[in-house]
Task: structure prediction
Amino acid sequence: MAVDFNLKDFLDKKVDEYNQPNFIPNDPISIPHQFSAKHDIEITGFLAAIMAWGQRKTIINKCNELIKRMDGTPYDFIMNHQEQDLKSLLGFKHRTFNDTDILYFVAFFKHHYNHFTSLEDAFLMGQEALEAVNLEQALNAFKVYFFSLPDYPHRTRKHISSPAQKSTVKRINMFLRWMVRKDNNGVDFGLWDRLSPKDLICPCDVHVERVARKFGLITLEKVNWKTALELTGNLRLLDPNDPVKYDFALFGLGVEREL
Result:
């Protein structure tokens, strides 16, 4: 695909239109925006991304319910809870994500933060010797690491996707966009420095896929990891340093049904 400068100009304008603070309240990214401490942003951002399927209003409500069950202080709850405190999580459910899953997530987060200062480290396993991060390898390694605690619930594995499963890894890629992208627009956090915006893969949900196909940014029939790579590769032609900024344009056009 050659660079279509008319398409680039159009999508750049749509990025500017949607990548604004007024995007936040109706999107799951509003959940981590309730916090100012890095650990709370990482934890609630990850949970919001993992639970981001279904209606956005429902997702936001369920995330707020979960935070309330953690006494409004997720990092403190995770690191300092007693066994009886976990009872507050029993009965939680969002679609197929339930209390068994969140209890394991809490165990994983506590394990991780006992060894590392940021969740970014979880996405850099085995990448230390590489000059540039290979995100496909990083996402596969993250899933292995996430389920490295003994006796993890097998049912929970379905909530953490990876390229090895041929998944687009939409939810985790969205979370990485939130944590890694840096600009002055106030939507994405840009908390992390070791992963670079140029290495990110565009989240490929139904809205993004539909709009991207209209523009010829996706040509593959099946929607899988290769589709996400094709989309991101074409977006890198428009902006090699920050290809996933176009997630705002494609998602926004899809949700607002502008086309």
Q: What stands out?
A: The two ends are 22 Å apart (CA to CA). The chain is about 45% helix and 0% strand. Strands lie at 93-94, 97-98. The chain has a mean pLDDT of 95.
